[in-house]
Design brief:
Number of helices: 3
CATH superfamily of the domain at 9-101: Photosynthetic Reaction Center, subunit H, domain 2
CATH topology of the domain at 9-101: Photosynthetic Reaction Center, Chain H, domain 2
Radius of gyration: 55 Å
CATH class of the domain at 9-101: Alpha Beta
Number of strands: 6
Distance between the termini: 41 Å
CATH architecture of the domain at 9-101: Alpha-Beta Complex
Structural class: mainly beta
C-alpha cells in the first residue's frame, strides 16, 4: 500500500522503517502532513542505538511492506540527514535544507501549513547514457583487479633468560702417596765394625725405636671462575611462502 491509499496516521506510529534493501533504520516517531492536501510528507524516524535521535525522511515513494514502512532512501543517507527539531512542524528553512540534502527540488511557495504546495516533487529523471546496466557513465569501462600487498609486523615470539643453579658431580682421581716401612738389615762383624760391636756389654737387653712416616690424602675445595656467559640476539632471515586468491575483472566484446 502506498502512502496515499487509505492513509491513517495512527497505524504508522512505532512501525519499523526500512530502506529499499530491507535494512532497518529505526521506528516512526511522527508523521508530518501537508495541511493543504492532508497527504503525508515527512516521517520523523527515531534512529541511533537507543533511539534518542530523530531523522527526517521524505515519504515520496514510501510504501508498506508487511509490518514495515519502506522508504525510498538508504539507511546511511537518512542517518546523516541535517538535524531538524521534531516539534510537530518543519520550518520553511528546515524543509528547504532537507529537500536539498535528499536531492529533491523545492518550491518556496507556501501552502497554509507553511510547507511546499503540492507535496514533494518527484525525483529528477536519470538521463540515458552508454551504460545499459546502471547509472549513466562515459563511453568507456574501467577494468580493476586486486593486487597483493604484503607487509610485516614485529610480534613477541618468546623470552629467554639466563638462570644459574647448582648441580653435584662425583669426581674420582688417583693420588700417589708414600709411606715408610721398617726394613731389617744384617751385616757381618768385620774389622771395620768390630769396635762398635764390642763397645757395649757382652750380654744385655735393649730396645731401639724408629719413627715411620706416611703421606695422607688431604681434600680441599675452592671456587674457581671458569667462564662468562651472556645472552645476545642474532637476526636470522627465513623465506616464508604467502598465497592468496586475487580477483580481477576481464572485459570481452560481444557482438549482436
Amino acid at each position: 500500500m502506498t502512502m496515499t491509499e487509505n492513509f491513517d496516521v495512527s497505524q504508522f506510529y512505532d512501525r519499523n522503517v526500512v530502506d529499499p534493501d530491507g535494512a532497518k533504520i529505526g521506528k516512526v516517531a511522527d508523521i508530518y502532513l501537508d495541511n493543504a492536501t492532508d497527504q503525508p510528507e515527512w516521517a520523523a524516524v527515531k534512529t541511533g542505538m537507543f533511539g534518542n535521535r530523530v531523522s527526517f525522511v521524505p515519504l515520496a515513494g514510501a510504501r508498506l511492506e508487511g509490518e514495515d514502512l519502506m522508504v525510498a532512501f538508504d539507511k546511511a543517507k537518512i542517518k546523516d540527514a541535517p538535524n531538524a527539531e521534531a516539534d510537530g512542524q518543519l520550518s520553511q528553512e528546515e524543509e528547504a535544507t532537507l529537500y536539498e540534502y535528499y536531492g529533491l527540488s523545492y518550491s518556496e511557495s507556501d501552502s497554509d501549513s507553511g510547507l511546499p504546495e503540492g507535496g514533494p516533487p518527484p525525483s529528477p529523471p536519470v538521463e540515458a547514457g552508454h551504460d545499459a546496466s546502471g547509472p549513466n557513465t562515459d563511453d568507456a569501462m574501467t577494468r580493476s583487479e586486486e593486487e597483493l600487498q604484503v607487509g610485516k609486523i614485529t610480534e613477541e615470539a618468546g623470552r629467554v633468560r639466563l638462570r644459574k643453579y647448582l648441580v653435584t658431580e662425583h669426581v674420582q682421581t688417583t693420588v700417589p702417596v708414600q709411606r715408610e716401612e721398617a726394613v731389617i738389615e744384617r751385616e757381618a762383624i768385620t774389622d771395620a765394625n768390630r769396635d762398635q760391636a764390642m763397645s757395649g756389654a757382652a750380654l744385655s737387653e735393649e730396645e731401639h725405636e724408629m719413627t715411620l712416616n706416611e703421606e695422607q690424602v688431604v681434600v680441599q675445595k675452592q671456587v674457581v671462575p671458569k667462564e662468562r656467559v651472556r645472552v645476545d640476539k642474532a637476526t636470522v632471515t627465513e623465506h616464508q611462502q604467502v598465497s592468496e586468491e586475487l580477483r580481477k575483472e576481464q572485459i570481452d566484446m560481444e557482438q549482436k
